[in-house]
Amino acid sequence: MPDPSTIALATAVATGTVAKIAEVVSQATIDDFKSFRKTVFRYFRGDPEAQEALDEALLEPDDEAAITAVAGHLERAAEAEPEIRRFMDALAAQPGQVTYGPVVNRADDVSGTVIQVGHVHGGNVHGSGR
């Protein structure tokens, strides 16, 4: 399974939305993303399987399987094409969605309660009635 930053990049490529990869977006990031997206489109045109995955993701950007397929093709493209690797590394280094540090959670098929707490201050007590 592709790593979370590659999934974010695949989602950004499919939606054309740079906000998927960075909370605070500079003009340089926007320019890099546009160049990256054009490079990916050009590269994927030469790979029918990658192009089919991208077409599906463009039509259904909320389809997790389609985005994951694009992310897998991005990983393979980055191994073969230094320009794609350079863009991916630069874009992945942008500040994440969470300003306190990178946090990626995935909770599939949870049968109980999932709680995520960040930056709790003061006398907050969670748990068994302490």
Describe the overall structure.
- The chain has 130 residues and is an all-alpha fold.
- It has a domain at 4-92.
- It is built from 5 helices and no strands.
- α3 runs antiparallel to α4.
- It is globular and about 30 Å long.
Low-confidence stretches: 96-103
Main sheet properties = none
Question: H/E order of the elements?
Answer: HHHHH
CA radius of gyration is 18 Å
Shape: globular
Whole-number mean pLDDT: 78
Q: Which secondary-structure class do the elements indicate?
A: mainly alpha
Q: Give the number of DSSP strands.
A: 0
Strand content: under 5%
Distance between the termini: 40 Å
Proportion in helices: 40-55%
- Total helices: the number is 5
Which keywords apply here?
mainly alpha, globular, 130 residues
How is this fold's topology laid out?
Layout: H1 4-15, H2 27-45, H3 48-59, H4 64-80, H5 82-92
Briefly characterize the structure.
This protein is mainly alpha-helical and 130 residues long. The protein has helices spanning 4-15, 27-45, 48-59, 64-80, 82-92.
